[in-house]
Design a protein that fits this description.
CATH class: Mainly Alpha
Largest sheet: none
Oligomer: single chain
Strand content: under 5%
CATH superfamily: MetI-like
Helix content: over 70%
Number of helices: 16
Radius of gyration: 27 Å
Structural class: mainly alpha
């Protein structure tokens, strides 16, 4: 082995200078190409955000002026004030937080138990039932919205938060089957000796789940909670179908009626024209809470993604 290494070192030392230069040139070329590709990808994703932030601080005069493109002449904070009033942001924020937090907690508990059952407990028809879970995941909610609306109307749930929260406690709701799959894949990767030792100590299935397996599933819990919270926060379609009264609207729904709400607040002074800087300021109010959440939990979120097996 030592002779082989000595021969390789000798070949490297005795290599012509142009071969060494070519290798370095090729490495530099591939590095530059990689950075160019990454820069283009980053710019593609960041351009809408930069445009939103830049436009939100513009006045109408700056926005229609072709000489002003990115940097406004003056920072116009009135757009945020008007957007805050027009969206009735305090009430809309409370409504969105109630739906998102309750739904996230419901899916956290129910999907963890369902995933544990599919991943660790052998029972007749397990694979067939899991196939039905996957089927519910691939079926778009728009295809079943009519029977769901009829069902919720008979239950008296229209214009309430029950359609968004109650199904989550039964391992369903928005993206619920995906979370069941995440927990199933996580629990299947755990060693079976843990449950064998728990059975020797006299633990049943539920006690084993709550005392041993659930504490180990912190990565899956973090991923499920953050995904569920953000997806329920950003959801527009289902609240649009089930919520009728403006005082029950979520933040995305309030954004859709911003102009009419602002005319009510200002007595019709907002006008009927499309005020894009005002719309961009309102969009920032929608984006800021999930962004703050991600900034605080970024490290835990990335680590949890890696440990749950989603990147395998």
């Amino acid at each position: 082995m030592a002779k082989v290494l000595d021969n390789l070192r000798a070949r490297t030392i005795d290599a012509p200078w142009f071969l060494i230069y070519r290798r370095r040139t090729e490495n530099l070329f591939f590095q530059v190409l990689m950075y160019l590709i990454l820069f283009n990808i980053a710019f593609t994703f960041l351009y809408p955000v930069l445009y939103m932030v830049s436009t939100a601080f513009m006045t109408i005069e700056d926005f229609v002026d072709p000489a002003v493109y990115w940097i406004p002449r003056t920072l116009n904070w009135d757009n945020f004030h008007l957007a805050f009033l027009g969206m009735n942001y305090k009430i809309a924020l409370k409504n969105s937080l109630i739906i998102a937090l309750v739904a996230a907690v419901g899916q956290l508990v129910s999907c963890a138990m369902a995933g544990y059952g599919f991943g660790r407990i052998r029972f007749p028809g397990r694979e067939f039932l899991f196939l039905l879970v996957i089927f519910t995941f691939i079926v778009p909610p728009q295809t079943i919205i009519v029977p769901l609306f009829i069902l919720y109307r008979k239950l008296g749930w229209i214009d309430t938060y029950y359609p968004f929260t109650v199904p989550t406690f039964f391992a369903h709701g928005l993206r619920g089957p995906l979370f069941v799959i995440i927990f199933r894949q996580f629990f299947r990767r755990q060693p079976w000796e843990l449950e064998d030792a728990a059975r020797v100590d006299g633990c049943g299935a539920l006690r084993t789940f709550f005392r041993i397996m659930l504490p180990l599933s912190k990565p899956a819990l973090v991923v499920t909670f953050l995904f569920s919270l953000v997806w329920h926060w950003n959801d527009f379609y289902e609240p649009m179908m089930y919520l009728m009264k403006p005082q029950n609207f979520t933040v995305p729904l309030r954004l859709s009626i911003l102009q009419s709400s602002l005319n009510e607040v200002t007595g019709g002074q907002a006008g009927e024209f499309f005020n894009e800087p005002l719309i961009m300021a309102a969009c920032q109010l929608v984006v800021v809470p999930p962004l703050i959440l991600y900034l605080f939990f970024q490290r835990h979120f990335v680590e949890s993604i890696e440990r749950t097996g989603l990147v395998d």
